[in-house]
Amino acid sequence: MKDLRRYLVLKYIQYLVLSSSNTISTFLGLLGSLYTIIILQSAKVSSKSTVVLISSLAKADILVSVSVASEMVVWTFDVSISSTAFTSALLQNLLTANTHISCLLLSCVAFEAYLITFFTTESRHLRTVKNARLTSRIIWILVTAECALFQMDDLLKASSTSAPTRSPWILLFHFSSTAAALLRSLSYFLGILLRIVNVYIYYKIFFSMSNR
């Protein structure tokens, strides 16, 4: 469907073209995800692997909605939060999780488009709804674990000043801090790699279609 293609273009611009999200792109992305979730409920939309990936991509914006709604409630009603550091870190980690899930799912869609274009028959057994759902679940599980590690690291940093200088708490702090730093570096380089791979894939697809 053309609407789903437009939605994918919007998401590619939001996550893989723009260096950082802004208010306009975030708002348009939320509207696009809401509209996509609605049209995917239609019986006219066939259940294909690409549709499964797009559905998971749209649902990832629920994390953004939670973060934005929480900030609006705090700002509008001047709600006092007992643990400001924990809450702010959680909201930021939700946005990070959304970005990582979206980038990975968009890359899966691009890879599937590559298989459809160049290996239509050979890849048919891979491009199934079951595999798409499994891939989406794996991505969500991995990014959730990443978000949990980041949250634990932020929590330990916030409470490190009151912790004893010599205790298992310090060992846990150093471990989580090192693991989180390595994971952030890995995520950064993986993000760059995904941008390059996506550009290459659509470059190949575009020139392949134009030569036909």
UniProtKB/TrEMBL annotation:
PROSITE patterns: G_PROTEIN_RECEP_F1_2 (PS50262). Residues 32-212 form the G-protein coupled receptors family 1 profile domain. SUPFAM superfamilies: Family A G protein-coupled receptor-like. The chain crosses the membrane at residues 12-40, 97-120, 132-152, 172-203. One of its GO terms (cellular component) is plasma membrane. One of its GO terms (molecular function) is G protein-coupled receptor activity. Keywords: G-protein coupled receptor, Glycoprotein, Membrane, Receptor, Transducer, Transmembrane, Transmembrane helix. InterPro entries: GPCR_Rhodpsn_7TM. GO terms for biological process: phospholipase C-activating G protein-coupled receptor signaling pathway; positive regulation of Rho protein signal transduction. It is a multi-pass membrane protein. Coiled coil: none annotated. It is found in: Membrane. Its main location: membrane. This is CXCR3 protein. It comes from Chionis minor (Black-faced sheathbill).
